[in-house]
Specification:
With 123 residues, this protein is of the alpha+beta class. The chain contains 4 helices and 4 strands; from the N terminus they run E-E-H-E-H-H-H-E.
Length: 123
C-alpha cells in the first residue's frame, strides 16, 4: 500500500506503508499500525524534524563515514573482486529513506504550511 505525504510547500512524497510507519515512528509518532491519514501541524514540525534527525544520527547504518569505511576495507581485503554488488541490492538506510520527507517538513516549516499523509496512489 502506498502512503502519500502532501504539503503546499513542496512536491508529494510517496512511500510504501511499512517504510512510512518506520519514518513516522522516527518522527515521534507512537503507532502500532499506520493510520489511513494524519497530519503534522505547523506547531509539530520542529519536533518532528528534530526527532527524525536524531533517529538518523543514532542509526549506525546511516552514518556515511562508517559505511564508506566498511566498503573501503572490503575493497582492500579483496584486491581482485570478481563481482561488485549492484547498487540496487544495497540496503536503504534511514538517512536515505527520510531525506525527501525531511526536505518537505523543512519547506513546510519555512512557509508555515502543514504536512498531511493519506493512503492512496500518487497517480
Amino acid at each position: 500500500m502506498l502512503i502519500t505525504f502532501r504539503s503546499n510547500a513542496s512536491a508529494d512524497v510517496v512511500m510504501l506503508d511499512k517504510h512510512a510507519l518506520s519514518v513516522l515512528k522516527a518522527a515521534g509518532r507512537d503507532y502500532e499500525t499506520l493510520p489511513e491519514s494524519g497530519v503534522f501541524t505547523v506547531a509539530q514540525l520542529d519536533e518532528a524534524i528534530q526527532n527524525i534527525t536524531r533517529a538518523v544520527a543514532e542509526d549506525p547504518d546511516s552514518n556515511p563515514d562508517l559505511v564508506y569505511a566498511d566498503k573501503d576495507r572490503e575493497e582492500e581485503e579483496d584486491e581482485y573482486p570478481e563481482e561488485k554488488p549492484h547498487p540496487v541490492t544495497e540496503r536503504v538506510t534511514l538517512r536515505r529513506r527520510t531525506f525527501p520527507l525531511l526536505d518537505m517538513l523543512r519547506a513546510a516549516r519555512a512557509q508555515g504550511k502543514e504536512v498531511v499523509w493519506e493512503v492512496g496512489s500518487a497517480w
